[in-house]
Amino acid sequence: MxxxxxxxxxxxxxxxxxxxxxxxxxxPLYKKRYKKVRKFQVHDExxxxxxxxxxxxxxxxxSKTKKWKIIEVIETVKNVKKGKxxxxxx
Length: 90
Prior knowledge:
mainly beta; CATH 2.40.50.140; globular
């Protein structure tokens, strides 16, 4: 069972949240560190808010794009930017 941690960036759909997962990768030749970003569509029965950090796990497919389920909320992020100038990747 694979457990992944990420930050909720959208919860506008019913029982679905978009979770952003960031990881640092080192380039094999140049040894520079850079950030890789991936978004997951996750089944949300809890009703988490935008900006919360969550743990989610692989599960049966709920739809074409939802194959993950939230198991717990870890923490709340304090400063969530609102408006058109927000950056979901920071």
